[in-house]
């Protein structure tokens, strides 16, 4: 009885997977999508009723779908979330609201910085999984590739909406990307 129920609840065979690699990938991607949701929530709190509100909402809706999928993958692959989620909850919202307080251009600069970092990170994960076994990780690779493409689209939307014209753009972008690298490093491990 119980064994067949478990098999029905997961479409992925957990046999022969590289557990440390998969744990790190799913944990950090869940944390990243959680943080992205909080960033967009902060941006919407400040700019939701502005002309850029619908654009931010559209990107946020995609991030909600990403978070839902990684939440499902955490159950499927039996991965625990990072213990840093409460911190990312606050930090993400503050980053989103803070960048939005700089105006539309500031919010879009934040989007460009974060989404560029995330798409680069997804590319690294794709390389890792392809080197491991592209057939074994086919479903996970498809998810990561699709989400990477969505993040690239968000990056391009930010550029189209004057991100590079934000005050101190290069400093802001560099600072946010350093924060992203630290968040990735910590969320993979803790």
Short note summarizing the structure:
The chain has 190 residues and is mainly alpha-helical.
Helices and strands in order, then pairings?
Elements: H1 2-9, H2 19-47, H3 53-76, H4 85-101, H5 104-132, H6 138-160, H7 169-189
Helix pairs in contact: 2-3, 2-4, 2-5, 2-7, 3-6, 4-5, 5-6, 5-7
Low-confidence stretches: 1-10
Query: Total domains, how many?
Result: 1
Number of strands: 0
Task: Specify the CATH architecture.
Answer: Up-down Bundle
CA-CA gap between termini: 35 Å
CATH topology: the name is Ferritin
Strand content: under 5%
Regarding CATH, which class? Mainly Alpha
- Derived from helix and strand composition plus strand pairing, the structural class reads mainly alpha
Please give the count of helices: 7
Which percent bin holds the helix content? Answer: over 70%
Biggest sheet statistics: none
Q: Roughly how many Å is the radius of gyration? A: 17 Å
Shape: elongated
Order of helices and strands: HHHHHHH
**Could you tell me the mean pLDDT?**
93
Keywords: Iron, Membrane, Metal-binding, Monooxygenase, Oxidoreductase, Ubiquinone biosynthesis
Protein name: COQ7 protein
Pathway: Cofactor biosynthesis; ubiquinone biosynthesis
GO molecular function, one term: metal ion binding
């Amino acid at each position: 009885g119980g064994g067949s129920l478990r098999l029905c609840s997961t479409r992925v065979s957990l046999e022969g997977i590289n557990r440390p690699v998969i744990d790190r990938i799913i944990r950090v991607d869940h944390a990243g999508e959680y943080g992205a949701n909080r960033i967009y929530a902060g941006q919407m709190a400040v700019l939701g009723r502005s002309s850029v509100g619908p654009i931010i909402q559209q990107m946020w809706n995609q991030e909600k779908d990403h978070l839902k999928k990684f939440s499902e993958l955490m159950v499927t692959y039996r991965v625990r979330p990072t213990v840093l989620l409460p911190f990312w909850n606050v930090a993400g919202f503050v980053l989103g609201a803070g960048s939005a307080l700089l105006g539309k251009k500031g919010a879009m600069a934040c989007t460009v910085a974060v989404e560029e970092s995330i798409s680069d990170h997804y590319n690294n994960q794709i390389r890792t999984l392809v080197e491991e076994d592209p057939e074994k990780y086919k479903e996970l690779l498809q998810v990561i590739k699709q989400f990477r493409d969505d993040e690239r689209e968000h990056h391009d939307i930010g550029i189209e909406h004057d991100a590079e014209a934000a005050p101190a753009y290069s400093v802001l972008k560099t600072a946010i990307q350093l924060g992203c690298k630290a968040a990735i490093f910590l969320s993979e491990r803790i």
